[in-house]
Amino acid sequence: MQQRIGYIGLGLMGKPMARNILEAGYPLTVHNRSRDAVDELAAAGAQAAMSPQEVAQASDVVFTNLPDSPDVEQVALGPDGILEGAHEGMIFIDNSTIKPETARNIAQRFAEAGAAALDAPVSGGDVGAQAGTLAIMVGGKREAFDAVLPVLRTIGKTITYVGESGAGQVAKACNQIMVAAQMVAMGELLLLAQKTGVDPQRVVEAIRSGAAGCWTLENKPQRLFAGERRPGFKAYMQHKDLGIVLDTARTYGMPLPATSGIMQLYEAMLQSGMRELDNSAVIGVLEAMAGETLSTSED
Amino acid sequence: MQQRIGYIGLGLMGKPMARNILEAGYPLTVHNRSRDAVDELAAAGAQAAMSPQEVAQASDVVFTNLPDSPDVEQVALGPDGILEGAHEGMIFIDNSTIKPETARNIAQRFAEAGAAALDAPVSGGDVGAQAGTLAIMVGGKREAFDAVLPVLRTIGKTITYVGESGAGQVAKACNQIMVAAQMVAMGELLLLAQKTGVDPQRVVEAIRSGAAGCWTLENKPQRLFAGERRPGFKAYMQHKDLGIVLDTARTYGMPLPATSGIMQLYEAMLQSGMRELDNSAVIGVLEAMAGETLSTSED
Fold it and tell me: Model pTM?
């Protein structure tokens, strides 16, 4: 029998993901703090629910996609929350990026109620969310993972069972270490090229297929060269994620000399009015340091 | 008429590159400080020459592939060097990674002698050198680039004309900013995963196809998991290249906050007996800091 799905948190990522689940033919119940996205999905055939608790009561599998750890705690464990509507065998899947410890705590509370919880953060941006090609990294009980794999396949392409509860969030933290390193390296190299009088666009052309090749160099430079710094993935969310990375590292006693330096650049980004820009716009901090602005194709 | 090619510097990169040129059917003259590689290529049909000057006299196009800026200066401009054997229309191509300023100085000296010089550093490692799939980034006169493009195609796959003399070296410096950032980020994320009790191999599986995806995550983790830290690309060469990056940045007034921190980790690597290891073995510095060694598949 087809699982009944619930989706809570219809933002830049959540809305296209919920839509992909709906379009794959699953019965879908949705909830969101602001109403517009709910109406949009209801028009496409989803049911609207008044609370996370209601979503849970109507669903076999409930997804959330929320900004930060306290939001997920509130929606999962708070009043009128998912746990209050949970039932035997229900599976809660959190697509948010939150602290591994919070994910483990939530999983334990759901287990006590005879339900299951998976941490399943994603990578691939709004583009991947729309195309259904996200990477999904999953932590929790293996049986629960197996039970929801078909519905995960409607939103993601590479779906990896990483390990016990929290392991998906650890993988996402690891992902953000690499992504942030690439973003800052891209900013440094584009401005260095321009400072020396060499065309940064030619440099990207020259290096993207060698050992420097990466998702970031494939997807971001042309946007920067076009003068486009809107998200994509917002700077304050990257800053939040790096906060999770460094908190987790401190908890487990892991020094991160490079990432901690990179975090300072995102800190500077937020302090200089760029919090709503794309995470690749961290080049703006370097521009301020260098007294040099990246030329755009229109210049 | 087929160009006569010369190749000087038959090391880990130069030898397979020279071999690819020879196997493509070009007449080849070679020279190397130590004799073994010369004998090997002579057995395959190359001519051996006693000095760079002799190579130049016998060739229309002369390549070098040497460790550092002073080596190239010596071989190109020193006694019995290439310039002394240069003739009208000869083209000198340097595949080494050296300072952009040195490349520009050499190009000017060759131009005064009626010859041309291109800086053409490469990326893609010994694997790419053997397979003939290197990325080659070229600076110098456009006509000279056009004249040697066919022979460059026998050693590389993506061949980009970046700009005037030195622009190829600037592109390579930019390349190394990204590569070093990825190497250190990989080290940090693998150890963070292990510290939290999550399998680093699963984490790599989970993140390599998302926004963290890169050449480094495709090629290096399996070697580290197998306990293999031999080069590949040696740590002291990466350290040398980052020295060029930071020198160039200082010359042109470009702060590089992330790369300068990363350089310190390579500095530490050299100081702790790891100079001959692969550049991915920078994880060893993080292991020492964390009091944690990456587990291998044999553990």
Answer: 0.96
